Amino acid sequence: MNVNDRIFELGMSVKRGEITWRDCADYINDEFGLNLSRDSVRSRFRSRENRIYKDERNDDTSASSGGMSMNNSGNTFDRSKGDYTTEYADGVIEAQRIVEYNREVFGDKCKMLEYLGYSPEEWEFVFVTTSVWQQHTKEQTTKELYAVKFKVRPLVKSMNVEKALDVAKEVFADKIDPLKVKARKDIQGLDKNKLLFIPQIEAHLGKLSEKIDTGVEYNHKIVEERVRKVFEEVILLQEREKCDRCLLVVGGDFFNSESNSQTTSGTLQQNDVRFKEMFNIGLCLYLEGLITLRENFNHVDVKICAGNHSRAMEHFLYIALSCYFRDDEVIKFSDDYKDTQSYVFGDVGLFFNHGDANQKRLIASIPAEFYQEYGKTLYRYLFVGHLHKLEVVNAENGLTLHRVPAICENDDWHYQNRFGVGNVPQHEIMIFDKNYGMLSDNFVYFGGKSRKNLTKVKKNGNI
Question: Which of these, 378, 297, 365, 311, lies nearest to 339 by C-alpha position?
């Protein structure tokens, strides 16, 4: 099989929703030693598809007059274009197909989807209209054809996170054996009044960005480098600060999508890896990071604050990690899985939410939901993310809202819609004193020119 035949074969799998054009390009490049982009592969497929259609049309002599026909809804069909497909950035596909009439299919939307090459489990119609016309063949017979014009979109699958989480806990607990780490005595010389805080790493692992589209490259390999860089900078900072305790928050759109390549609410995402590999990469990165933290702190606390891109996948990651460390005396996981979390360290109250909720209601709800934690603390911080930018709002009524940045680059959709253009990918590492609140805010920068981390020193509550 030559390369164009293979492209056509895989392209039909794409049309059926079984793989993506990125997958198709990867398969072709691996099999034939090429370096084709997904757009090049898609273009070759379209060319081959149109040629096949024209060859079929040349075998018949059309007896229809004119190039247009109308259906009863008033939509027009351009038969001169034959079959065509238009794909939109949000995953919606608009197309036209010339097909033979099938009594069992027409009138049943599920069967019609399958007839057109789309799985009813993955796609749904936005609209579908048909127009009948006749065609005379060389054998002097008349063939009745239908022009089907339609628009389909990826089916939004409801996901019961709570139910999925219960299943994951049972499966992971049964399949994952705790790591056999050596017991050790406390590290001497660490300050029990100090906490090193690592907010959720908004990495969007799996996100694909290509330089030709956005001016920057971003893929799972870059994510691996950046996440490891975050933990390296944590250890360098710990050598100076000597904190006794570390708090790590897992989640915050660490993954770019759920297992169906969509966000939790159903928005289609452009990924460079399938979900199994994406999950394994993320699991390995956090395992490495936690083992490193364990060697440098006497206590490591871990909490979950899942994002809107991959709420279920991040819960699975958190549960899998907790199974690995369930017998450990240094690393401790919380059994609180709510989307809004709290953590108390002396007079310091830290609160977490992804930040996709209504901000005004979110701020007002913290003292109500966490009245005990709020009432016994003096320095209170609400950490959110979601918008991929650093933002600090002055303390109001005793609560400081702090929006953490992201380490990822823009993808094509964000670039086209001008979201986050010019933002410098970065991550924060903060130091807290249980008596005085935040002592310092440290930044790890990525992309652009290489520069040293910047530290703002805060003493006794004043910068």
Answer: 311
Residues 6+ apart with CB under 8 A from 372: none
Give the pLDDT of residue 362.
93
Beta pairing, strands 341-345 & 348-352: antiparallel
Within a domain: 463:
no
Angle at 342 between CA 338 and CA 346, to 5 degrees: 160
What is the residue-averaged pLDDT of the chain? 83
The yes-or-no verdict on residue 28 having pLDDT over 70 is yes
Half-sphere exposure of 203 (CA within 13 A, CB side): 28
On whether both 71 and 25 belong to a single domain, the answer is no
Of 93, 122, 155, the position where a domain reaches its end is 155
Same-domain check for residues 184 and 202: yes
Residues 306 and 227 in one domain: yes
CB 201 within 8 A of CB 310: no
Task: Specify the pTM.
Answer: 0.65
Q: Judge if 172 and 268 occupy the same domain.
A: yes
- The confidence band for 383, taking pLDDT boundaries of 50, 70 and 90, is very high
Amino acid at 380: R
Decide: 263 and 257 in contact? Cβ < 8 Å. yes
Q: Which of 403, 432, 248 is nearest to 334 (CA)?
A: 248
CATH label of the domain that carries residue 193: 3.60.21.10
Please name the helix (run of DSSP H) or strand (run of DSSP E) that holds residue 364, with its range, or none.
Answer: helix 359-369
CA 294 to chain centre: 28
Q: State residue 278 phi and psi, 5-degree precision.
A: -60, -45
Q: Which of 325, 374, 345, 7 is closest to 176 using CA atoms?
A: 325
pLDDT digit string, tens, across residues 417-431? 787 788 899 999 999
208: tokens are: 């694909």
Residue 425 tokens, joined? 């990918």
CA distance 270 to 263: 11
How many domains is the chain built from? 3
Does the pLDDT value for residue 296 go beyond 80?
Answer: yes
Tell me which residue range forms the domain holding 228: 161-457
The pLDDT of residue 53 is 47
Q: How many CA atoms does the CB half-sphere of 93 hold within 13 Å? A: 22
DSSP notation for 147-160: EEEEEEEE------
